[in-house]
Every structure is written in structure tokens, then in C-alpha cells.
Write a structure and sequence with these properties.
The structure holds 2 protein chains of 2 kinds. Helices cover about 0% and strands about 45% of the residues of chain A. Chain A contains no helices and 11 strands. Chain A is globular. Classes of the chains: A mainly beta, B mainly beta.
Chain lengths: ~120, ~110
């Protein structure tokens, strides 16, 4: 069974950089999309972006200037960095596994089948 | 960006009854490969979202057949049959056809 375990700093000051890492256990790491989604307190889900098997990325346009998602295939991990955070970036951040473009299989294009436990990140001075 | 609009915002259901949630997208989710990329997720209280349905109507592994999805193009529906206490939470639709991926605002389902 695929499991995603994520970690990173939970309290940041404005202008600092958010940094989260997600480790993948079980199943294959290569060949899949890997994504980050966030959820402000009491609100809905917001897609941040994803990294594709080649290492290329897709980002939400409003975050593109501040976000970097990258792979570390040697460790079966991927990470999220978000620079210059503000209070508006306060949210629970989730990592998730996307599909395999060679065969979208049981999740379909753009979907996410396995999710991390979530990390609450608070931005406050 | 594709706007996903869910209705209703909230739903109170008698145990054993059925519930339906509508999701409308601002553009077609039909891909040139012939598939339509619309997913449904359930976020139970205090938990991460879990995938229920992918490609409009296919149930993810382990999802009971009480959950069913239908629709095409821009109009989609999730039906929950025989609602029980463990089905409470917020249901989200999400489109994977276009970038950026976008979610509906969510529908909160509670038990009467």
C-alpha cells in the first residue's frame, strides 16, 4: 500500500520561505505525477502544482512566481518551496500522488489517489 | 481557470436515504483521448481527502458501490445511496482535464 508522509516547519513569519517534504513508501515512485494541494482554515481545497515524471512542473498561475516543486528520486521524495509567505498562505498543506501518464489507470489525468496526512502551516508575525 | 460549481453547499440526509450532489464545470472536461477527467473526493472530519470516483463514474479501489458518478461534458452528479453516519464529511469535485486543476467549493453532508 502506498503511503505518503510529509513534514516541514509549521510556523513561519511573513516573508520567510515555506519548505515541505513528502516521502513515498510502497509502490513505485518513478513514472508518476506528484502534487501539492492546500486548504486554508475552514475553506476548500486549492491545487498548488505538480511535478511530472520528467521533473517538469505545472503550477497555479497566481503562485508561479513563488513556488517550486521538485523531485528527489534517490530518496523517493518530493518537496514544495513557497517563498515570501504571507498570512494568506496559512493553510493545511497536503502532498498527493497523481497518475501515471503511461497508463492513467485508476486515478485518471489530473487526479490524486494517495494523500499525505497534511501539515498545518501558520504564517504570523 | 476552469470554475467548478457544486450544489448544494450543504445537505442533511436521513440515514438510509439517498443524496445527490451536482458539479458543473465552466468548460467541457472531455479530453481528445475520449475520456472525461472529473473526480470526486470525500474529506471526512479531521482527515485528508480520499478519492471516491475518477473519470466521472469509475470507483476507486475499495470504494463501495453505494457511491456512483454520472454525467458528461460540463454537468456531473455524485449519488450516495443508503447514507450512513460514516459518509458524513465534505465532498469535492475536481477537474483534471485542464491546467490548473481546480476543485469545487465543496458540499457538506451531514446526518439528520
Amino acid at each position: 500500500q502506498v503511503q505518503l508522509q510529509q513534514w516541514g516547519a509549521g510556523l513561519l513569519k511573513p516573508s520567510e520561505t515555506l519548505s515541505l517534504t513528502c516521502a513515498v513508501y510502497g509502490g513505485s515512485f518513478s513514472g508518476y505525477y506528484w502534487g501539492w494541494i492546500r486548504q486554508p482554515p475552514g475553506k476548500g481545497l486549492e491545487w498548488i502544482g505538480e511535478v511530472i515524471p520528467s521533473g517538469g512542473t505545472n503550477y497555479k498561475s497566481s503562485l508561479k512566481s513563488r513556488v517550486t516543486i521538485s523531485l528527489d528520486t534517490s530518496k523517493n521524495q518530493f518537496s514544495l518551496k513557497l517563498t515570501s509567505v504571507t498570512a494568506a498562505d496559512t493553510a493545511v498543506y497536503y502532498c498527493a500522488r497523481g497518475g501515471n501518464p503511461a497508463n492513467w489507470g485508476s486515478v485518471g489525468r489530473g487526479g490524486f489517489d494517495f494523500w499525505g496526512q497534511g501539515t498545518m502551516v501558520t504564517v504570523s508575525s | 481557470d476552469i470554475v467548478m460549481t457544486q450544489t448544494p453547499v450543504s445537505l442533511s440526509v436521513t440515514p438510509g436515504q439517498s443524496a445527490s450532489i451536482s458539479c458543473k464545470s465552466s468548460q467541457s472536461l472531455l479530453h481528445s483521448d475520449g475520456k472525461t477527467y472529473l473526480n470526486w473526493y470525500l474529506q471526512k472530519p479531521g482527515q485528508s481527502p480520499q478519492l471516491l470516483i475518477y473519470e466521472v463514474s469509475s470507483r476507486f479501489s475499495g470504494v463501495p458501490d453505494k457511491f456512483s458518478g454520472s454525467g458528461s461534458g460540463t454537468d456531473f452528479t455524485l449519488k450516495i445511496s443508503r447514507v450512513e453516519a460514516e459518509d458524513v464529511g465534505v465532498y469535492y469535485c475536481m477537474q483534471g482535464r485542464h491546467l490548473p486543476r481546480t476543485f469545487g467549493q465543496g458540499t457538506k453532508v451531514e446526518i439528520k
